[in-house]
Amino acid sequence: ELGIQRYSKSSTIQEGFYYVVQALSPVMTGVDLLFPVKHLASGDAIFLPILLNVCGSSVGFTGERNASYSGPLDLTLSEAKQCLANNNPWNLEYFRNSASKDSLRDFEYAAICSQSLVMLNRPTEALWYLDQIVSVDIICEARTLYDRAMIWSRHLAPQHRDTDYALSLLERALRLTIKGSSVDEVIESALLKNGLALIVARSDLRGALALESEAIASLSSLNSMHRSSLSSTLATLYSNKARIHSRLGEFNEAMSLCNKAIDLDSQTDAHYNIAVEICLENERNDWATQYLNAMPGGYHTSDHAILRGNLASVSGDATNAISWYEAALELNPELVDVRLQLAQEFSESLEIDSARECLLQLSSEYLDSGQRCRRDLLHLELDSYQWDVQLEETMVRELERLRCTYPESSLIAENIEILKAKRVALSNRSNPEASI
Asked: Which residue of 30, 177, 211, 340 has the fewest CB atoms within a 10 Å radius of its CB?
């Protein structure tokens, strides 16, 4: 009981493991252990049986399974896909571990395993599953190359990413499909160009724009019968092209494309999300509100709550921003970026204890380097509120330490000045005569 209580209050999974194992150590060796499921309701719990099995014990669970923890189930392929669609990769642990060699050769099976590991921030393992695939046709091979490229360009740790290699993988995939005449090959070629554009956009926005235009043109060249069934794919390409125009500062062109995407696929919230994000980036809050009000999912999706929170945040309404971010987390507790943003709002509202509590609920295992950097900056910011105003050099020294920890992050230098400014603001609030 002591171990489980301390587990639930720990800030990381490793700390939780330490307390649980410490509490159970007298009876660990070779003993079957039963855990009450109600105490282990989060996705983190899937790691407990792994740890304890290594220690030589077998583990079971008692009581009804909580809705957010379903344990190792023998899932079908369609059920596994649904888990991914519901942003629930934890339930696929058994699905992956029980796979036969024949299953892993199948693209669909291995791709699901790989995608779930990417969602768990375990990209190296995800690549291993893609390596097991035996391609049976051009489409299968092209999609495998695409998935590998996305991992190499976006999901590996920053120091291990290789954009050039990712581009070469996508170019290989394009060569396989570019000359194809079948509808599937034309579609696959368009999707590959879209993937290529996502990577190229980091250094060449105009080049990325040309690739998106080519992809749209190739799908538009299909006859009307096929185009009608491709409306959602075309809408996605329009939305991605809108993002690029926005980054180029071409707001009107971006919004025109957003409207095209919504006209083609009006029942998908993602296109409204992109339109809202572009409006917020360009300080068109009134436009953002109109798109939010038109979203088909209404107030019942986490995406909608996040965007409402973002709108309130940029409008300076911290109270409503906090309410919306909390609503999003109730719908999906695993939204790391939302929890970080909620902690930021609490910090800026000087609700220090709430901000700390929010950060303690983050599990390090699911944070990428950028998220860990932001978390550590928030911890530093919260600590700085306890320092004397004159100790600015302490903040700078701590930031320099973080700069060494996260050399790829541009946030550190920006935060040196931000934290100084916040310390001055806090000093003025605590000492009104100083501001006068």
From this structure: 30
User: Would you place residue 387 in the very low, low, confident or very high pLDDT band (cuts 50, 70, 90)?
Assistant: low
Specify the pTM: 0.59
Average pLDDT of 76-90? 76
pLDDT > 70: percent of the chain: 68
**What pLDDT, on a 0 to 100 scale, did the predictor assign at position 39?**
42
The mean pLDDT value for 363-387 works out to 75
Report which residue type is found at 183.
V
